Amino acid sequence: MNPGASNFVQGVDTAFIVILGLSFVLLIGITFFMVYFVIKYSKKNHPVPEDVKDSHKLEILWTVIPTILVLIMFYYGWIGYQPMREVPNGAIEIKATGRMWSWDFEYPNGKRSNILVVPKDKPVKLNLYSPDVLHSLYIPAFRIKEDVVPGRPNYMWFIAQELGEFDVFCAEYCGVQHSYMLSKVRVIDENEFLAWFNKKEDESQQFASIGEQILAQNGCVACHSRDGSKLVGPSFKGLYGTQKNVEVNGDMKKVMADDEYIKRAIYDPNAEIVEGFNKGLMVSYKDKITEDEIKEVVNYLKTLK
Ligand code: CUA
Fold first, then answer.
1. CA atoms of 256 and 277, how far apart (whole Å)
2. In contact, 185 and 118? CB cutoff 8 Å
3. Ligand 1 geometric centre to CA of 135 (Å)
4. Within 10 Å of residue 221's Cβ, how many Cβ atoms?
5. What are phi and psi of 66, to 5 degrees?
6. How high is the mean pLDDT in each 10-residue block of the chain (305 residues)?
7. CA 38 to CA 225: how far, in whole Å?
8. Ligand 1 midpoint to CA 222 (Å)
9. Bridge pairing between strands 144-148 and 135-139
10. Which CATH number is 207-301 given?
């Protein structure tokens, strides 16, 4: 039998099939008796109504049988779920950040990736973290889903048992681009994984500059376009060096989008809101983007004329 894409597939699928099977038995049984009573007690077959006397035997029966059925569902549910909370020793720990609206995976050596790369047949623990709102990390092929809650550490773990790429979704409504909060798990051989893991930031090759890489890795580009189109936040295109109308404590003000402005917008994004945009959609990146990195971001923004 196919072991499944992760070590949890069999347990979850068994619980699912048991519940589906019992539901099917109940559907057939209830429908059967419904039709049977409709015919038996129709006016034609049963013209004079009678009182029904209570029956202890029947009451005990319809209490005990559903209790047993529900306990069977609970048993299989628990058997499938309980191992998900017990992480084996020696699991690779990866910090998984879900934010509006992208995923970021950080490995023990500091390597970061926007897709989850894991070795086959090794336990992997994901430490779940959200800087903004509720998200939920969902890997359907692995049969695992766990809420990512701001201010409350959570985790999930798995052993990938099949090579290949599998979808990652956000399964908790988190705002306008919730349905675009997608990623992938890539399961590769252990040797291949070690080579990937030890290679310094191969992602950087995709970026024209360090500043662009910083913006991409922090998920900035999910809300700020680089082609002038309006997303949740103002576009980066033509931003640097122009006058902006911003709202500060209810008053409109003109500010110059210079180095200091960029820094304020990253560290204290809700202090000045650009006209036409909403407050409270961005959190501070103070503990995520350093001042040196902001200089790189500014250099990149200067190129987006
Ligand atoms: Cu994140 Cu929905």
1. 17
2. yes
3. 4
4. 15
5. -60, -35
6. 86 95 94 95 89 90 93 95 94 94 91 92 95 94 96 95 95 91 94 89 67 84 84 86 86 87 89 85 84 88 85
7. 63
8. 12
9. antiparallel
10. 1.10.760.10
Confirm or reject: Cβ of 99 under 6 Å from ligand 1. Answer: no
Distance 156 CA to ligand 1 centre (A): 17
What does CATH list as the number for 9-85? 1.10.287
Nearest alpha carbon, ligand 1 atom 1? 135
Please tell me the CATH superfamily of domain 92-198, with its number: Cupredoxins -  blue copper proteins (2.60.40.420)
Instruction: Give the residue extent of every domain in the chain.
Output: 9-85, 92-198, 207-301
Q: Residue 301: CB within 6 Å of ligand 1?
A: no
Contact predicate 237/226, CB 8 Å: yes
For ligand 1, the distance from its centroid to the CA atom of residue 106, given in whole angstroms, is: 19
Return the DSSP state at 152: B
CA distances from 277 to 33, 201, 233, 246, 274 (A): 60, 34, 6, 9, 6
Ligand 1 close to Cβ of residue 288 (< 6 A): no
H-helix or E-strand containing 251?
Answer: strand 251-256
